[in-house]
Amino acid sequence: MPKQIPFIIANEGCERFSFYGMRNILTVFLMTSLLLSIPEELRKGEAKNVFHTFVIGVYFFPLLGGWLADRVFGKYNTILWLSLVYCAGHACLAMFEHNMTGFYTGLFLIALGSGGIKPLVASFIGDQFDQTNRSLAQKVFDAFYWIINFGSFFASLLMPVFLKHFGASVAFGIPGILMFIATFVFWLGRKKYVRVEPVSNDPHAFLVVIRSAILSQGATRTQSRPGLWLTFLGFALSIAGLFFIPQIGVVAALCSALVLVMGFGGVGAWMQLERVRGIHPDEAIDGVRNVLRLLVLFALITPFWSLFDQKASTWVLQADHMTKPEWFQSSMMQALNPALVMILIPFNNFVLYPLLARGGVKVTALRRMGTGIAATGLAWIVVGGLQLEIDGGDPITIVWQIIPYALMTFGEVLVSATGLEFAYSQAPISMKGVITSFWYLSVTVGNLWVLLANSSVKGEAVTAYIQSLGLSVTAFQMFFFAGFCLCAAGLFAMYARNYRMLDNYRQA
């Protein structure tokens, strides 16, 4: 095992405590303090919008961090510098608890810092391995994910208590201290790390090949260019989407525009990619095609994230209407998620997977992820059933939320923990940071689904239709998201059957 790994793992544990420490009390703080000037009937929706807009930012900035690391500064420098930005964001939250502008500035800096380093720490771990010891990499990625949840568990348990008894400045300040410790620990290992140098001015880089394919007129220079027109359509739709800024917000609208351009541009490039053989080497063209195949898988995972991240918003708000001990805060229930992760990761690796292997079932990364998406859909059927009981006026204990938490956490371990190593192994050597950032971009798209769903139910026609079904808006959305996720699981399974696995670890 590479000796530098403990520095990265310890850094991640402290950083995750800092992130989840502030994230898991954010909705409660918004509802009880920062948004008190908003009418009570609108406050819940506004708190959810602020929360999911922040999450969108966190998982959008990996694109910037991945590009800076792969093309300009390298992973180590980018992680270190953005970690300092991250620390500044925590300081803003602690200092501006009563100032909306200052507080939102802090959220922006945390989104930039946390999002920017998010794909890099995972891929930086992968860089410490090569073809000779890559069998250890999956174990380290599991340990990496375990330590994430170790930090998240204590943050979820303690920060609501600190918020209640010591106020927002302390509750947001403690995560800031942990982030400073994380940065210092990472810096301590600086002389031990394997550093893969950035590749700049590559004439056959991913985006260069994509651009060549979209603009190519073919060998005869007279062929039609459907890929180009499709890309133009993506740009047109993205511009049209900006008119929805009043409904979903600036951040969500801009991210939606980017996703449309990337989606239509990617399909357009795929259609014309063979035209640039001879202009670019076969290795570069095949690499682009493999990346585009990978991005389809990432797109099919987005419904999982739209459900998973609502445990910190929708599920917390549901818990407010459930019976519980007086000392227990609704947001403390989230501590159950990382606690279950810490149990399920070793259980799966040492009990479940070996048991399935002895039964003749091959547990591949893609099978894990498809099963995880389906398990998450089932969790939301259960939580929708709980909502029906609440809407019916029956008192229901918060203990019942353990069932959906267990199902969704099982899905999380199969999707998220597996996906980190999967994304790294499938990425070309020169694109490790960018591809891992695309993995995290799927979280952004998942949260976009949430904002779009929240926006759609505000219309009178949709609300009237939901009422005609005898359901509350909340229950209807829960069952809608469950069906959305189960459909995605089916599509993922069908697409995964023809996906060709790659092994892109560096040579020793």
CATH homologous superfamily assignment of the largest domain: MFS general substrate transporter like domains
Average pLDDT, rounded to a whole number, is 86
Query: Do you know the CATH topology of the largest domain?
Result: Growth Hormone, Chain: A
Oligomer: single chain
Low-confidence stretches: none
Q: How many domain regions?
A: 2
Strand content: under 5%
CA radius of gyration is 23 Å
Distance between the terminal alpha carbons, to the nearest Å?
14 Å
CATH arch. level architecture of the largest domain: Up-down Bundle
Element-level helix/strand string: HHHHHHHHHHHHHHHHHHH
The level 1 CATH classification of the largest domain is: Mainly Alpha
Q: Roughly how much helix do the residues carry, as a percent range? A: over 70%
* Largest sheet data: none
Structural class: mainly alpha
Subcellular location: Membrane
Main location: membrane
Membrane topology: Multi-pass membrane protein
InterPro entries: Dipep/tripep_permease (IPR005279), MFS_trans_sf (IPR036259), POT_fam (IPR000109), PTR2_symporter_CS (IPR018456)
